[in-house]
Amino acid sequence: MRELGDTIMKVAVVGATGLVGTKMLQVLAERNFPVTEIVPVASEKSVGKEVSFKGTTYKVVSMEDGIAAQPAVAIFSAGGGTSLEWAPRFAAAGIRVIDNSSAWRMDPTKKLVVPEVNADVLTKDDFIIANPNCSTIQMVVALQPLHRKYTIKRVVVSTYQSVTGTGKKAVDQLFNERKGVSGEMAYKYPIDLNVIPQIDVFLDNGYTKEEMKMVNETNKIMQDDSIRVTATTVRIPVVGGHSESVNIEFANDFDVNEVKEILANAPGIIVQDDLANQVYPMPLWAHEKDEVFVGRIRRDETQPNTLNMWIVSDNLRKGAATNAVQIAEYLLAKGLL
Fold it and tell me: Which of 209, 201, 176, 210 is nearest to 191 (CA)?
């Protein structure tokens, strides 16, 4: 078993050839995580392919070889089934796993972490750490500092989510439709010049799985089951990131200028709220950025203690890769890698 404190920082990226896995390699390089060697891991059909990291080429290896390489940390983005099967095997070998799938998020024995919100829950005993859903991550980054000050009672969120959240097949569908080219369909319906009010499967209560993820994950991350959340999640034909219209009811009243100041001073947030110059968050500006952008901050005039705001973030970065790398950075800073 690898001993904590080893100076060699091997990092495995499981699902290295996928859309999020590729972004994880990019973010590791851009944030200068102290990688001495990348161990790219993927399915058997991708073994032997090459990926590049900081000018060095690495061959993709199998799951077994990924464990044998004894990385300090393995960042998974290979789907829930793969994570359920392989994350425990990596963990049993003393390798810390940060998993981007939904497999472990609601497991009561696993931590669900957004570093700006609840990194302090992590301990030396956590060997499988869950990365939350993309739409949940950006929302709780903005909610947490306001909850601390005013106490959130209820959140109503409607999302406008990028096709990149579905994967390469969906991106290809969008651009094929733009070019008038037929091709494989990621969605049942066209996505260009359309919006699809369904993300993931419908559940018995009429909500989609994505919508219920936002409900349950928000309560777990913020460690407060009293916060009531209701969500409608929608796919739109953009690639730069997810947008969210969020209505928040607080237990206590607030001053809008103070809200803006709290958000501007909170970690990981950039406030874009200059109405005179039509400055507000958009996927166009959030693309390839690590921050969560918040704007259109205003009082809901229909009921007391209620706020409206607009939240945008790059779902492949802060919504997936960046958040996972930030967890690894926290573990390293605390001497857990």
Answer: 176
User: How confident is residue 7, by pLDDT bands cut at 50, 70 and 90?
Assistant: low
Q: Is 88 helix (H, G, I), strand (E, B) or coil?
A: helix
Q: What is the pTM of this model?
A: 0.95
Q: How many CA atoms lie within 13 A of 22 on its CB side?
A: 8
Residue in 105, 242, 317, 318 annotated catalytic: 242
pLDDT in tens, 243-254: 999 999 999 999
Q: Which of 134, 142, 222, 320 is catalytic?
A: 134
Superfamily of segment(s) 10-132+320-333: NAD(P)-binding Rossmann-like Domain (3.40.50.720)
CATH 3.30.360.10 is right for the domain spanning 135-314: yes
Q: Is 287 a catalytic residue?
A: no
Where are the domain boundaries for CATH 3.40.50.720 in the chain? 10-132+320-333
Give the alpha-carbon dihedral of 314, 317, 320, 324, to 10 degrees.
Answer: -150
One-letter amino acid at 14 equals V
219 catalytically annotated? no
